Amino acid sequence: MQKKTQKLTVYVIVGLLIISLVGTSFMFLGDMRPTVGKNYQDQINSLKQALEANPQDTQTRLALADTYYDWGMQTLSQDMAEENLATTTSILQQAVTEYQEVLKTEKNVNILVDMATAAFYTSQNELADQTFQEALQEDPNFYNGLYNYGVFLYSQGDYGKAIEQWEKALALENISTDDKERLERNIKLAQDGIVQQFQQPENGDSSDANAEAK
After folding, report:
1. Residue ranges of domains in the chain, CATH in brackets
2. Could you give the C-alpha distances from 200 to 12, 57, 193, 194, 209, in angstroms and in order?
3. Segment 43-69, tens digit of pLDDT
4. CA 107, 138, 117, 177 torsion: positive or negative?
């Protein structure tokens, strides 16, 4: 039970921090979720049929991966109840699988960051970490990569490195006022996390209790 609680806590933390990549219109769908889910499934079925006819069509496979990703991110942003995490994880795992196939023939920073983010949400932390780093080697100034890698590091309790990523993003030219304010809030959260780490009791039992209460 504790493991499930900790996993849910990570989803909640990241839900507060993660940059929205699927569009703010989804915030207002409310009871339309089942219909939207069916629309995603219909689109996926259509893309799968196209791939059956032409398995080497990288752009169609990328569209399939993006559809899984958008569906999973939308579902996660709307309903983080623990009983629904398995469904969301399954959807995002499909995104990871399809992105991996695409990356065999086409590599760019957008695909790498989306795959890393999906891997993170499916608890594939080593894959997520490696892929975020690969993406930032491709483009060290890619905002979404810096932002989401910071979120990943924050969720792992590596607040110092999270701050490093967000400060790099904050130094980029032409970021919006909203992005700047979001980054500054996140940096403050990470700084608070560092303070809390130093304030935790050395007693192991007390530390576990504090972690579970968060």
Report:
1. 2-213 (1.25.40.10)
2. 22, 53, 11, 10, 10
3. 999 999 999 999 999 999 999 999 999
4. negative
For residue 164, give every residue at least 6 positions away whose Cβ sits within 8 Å of its Cβ, in sequence order, or none.
150
- Please provide the average confidence, as pLDDT, over all residues in the chain: 81
pLDDT digits (tens, 9 = 90+) for 82-120: 667 888 899 999 999 999 999 999 989 999 999 999 999
Residue whose token pair is 């999906």: 118
Supply 6's token pair.
Answer: 């900790």
Output the pLDDT for position 84.
Answer: 72
Q: If DSSP codes are grouped into helix, strand and coil, which group holds residue 126?
A: helix
How far apart CA 109 and CA 142 sit, in angstroms, is 8
Give the Cα separation of 201 and 59 in Å (integer).
53
The residue type at 194:
I
Under 8 Å CB-to-CB from 67, ≥6 apart: which residues?
40, 43, 44, 47
